[in-house]
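Hey forum,

I'm writing up a methods section and want to include a predicted complex as supplementary material. The small molecule is pyridoxal-5'-phosphate. I've pasted the protein sequence and the SMILES. Can someone with a working setup run it? I'll credit the forum in the acknowledgements.
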Amino acid sequence: MKAFEKNIRKVEPYVPGEQPQQTVIKLNTNENPYPPAPGVARALKAMDPNRLRLYPDPTAGELVKTLADYYGVSEDQVFVGVGSDDVLAMCFLTFFCSEKPILFPDITYSFYKVWANLYRIPYECCPVDEHFRIVKEDYFRENGGIIFPNPNAPTGLYLELSEVEEIIARNQDVIVIIDEAYIDFAGRSALDLIEKYENLIVVQTFSKARSMAGMRIGYAISNPLLIRYLNDAKYSFNSYTMSQAAIACGVEAVKDKEYFEEGIRKIIKTRERAKKELEQLGFVCLDSQANFIFVTHPEYDMKVLYETLKSKAGIYVRYWGSERIEQYIRITVGTEEEMDALLGFLEGYK
Ligand SMILES: *Cc1c(COP(=O)(O)O)cnc(C)c1O
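Reply by user p_vandermeer:
Happy to help. Structure tokens for the complex are below, copy them as they are.
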């Protein structure tokens, strides 16, 4: 090892799902199979390249205002970033500065561990139970902060808001972050609790329900004090996070509520049909409330199935092979036709 290497920050990075560039059936990273709202295409067409000479609005004011109006909060309660990964990373940096460990589930979004290690934040994982459910009592102890997704990933299981509230209420000395990447496919959002608890931050994204993973937009909603702390960290790091295109397209996506809700209805319908048909083929599906299904099969090796789906059918799903989930794959809910192709292949499998 070279002498200078001891001064280099070494991290074990997050491994994103595969992004194949040829045409395949892509059910591996929970993207939306439908296009974004029509207004997004119009906004892109209307963009004047000459304006790209100029820096974007560092506050992304138009997008912040549109989100604030949509959710019925004030503009100083909204923080935006380059996908919720950026927002979450900023939250870890800003709010998790305790010597005590932060808490999150053992089976969850694998990026949490990566950020904790990157920022040298101590953490402990609370095992989900044998049905993969979050056990709320595990979070009723001293800690340096709490984060979990609701619905959880990659299980898709939704924790009732009353239980989420108990976790927030029992931890008012630390910040609790609820990562709601998939909430639009599920039940009530913790946004309903924002006015009641000063220690709560809700993070959401445009990548899933709003069909805009490629544009990279995420946001946090909280009270003005915590949003101010987040902005202080952001302006100490990179002032111009949101491109002009992201701001313009984001605004159009949020404005079209009808299109948004129709898209969600379609995906939930396909999800419930796919669950039923997978079960008829002997698969065991967790009761996902998200836009993906976490499944196993008592007779199949799921790693082999994952590889076969890719090589024989050109269908990409997600497989981790990590502890407790070696025999599970996660299938993103695609279009009806994509799910037909998947189910058709599975019918002839083995
Ligand atoms: C997809 C996802 C994110 C990140 O999404 P962005 O594309 O960065 O907005 C964050 N948390 C969970 C649980 C996710 O599944």
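Some notes you might quote in the supplement: The longest strand covers residues 200-205. DSSP finds ten helices and twelve strands in the chain.
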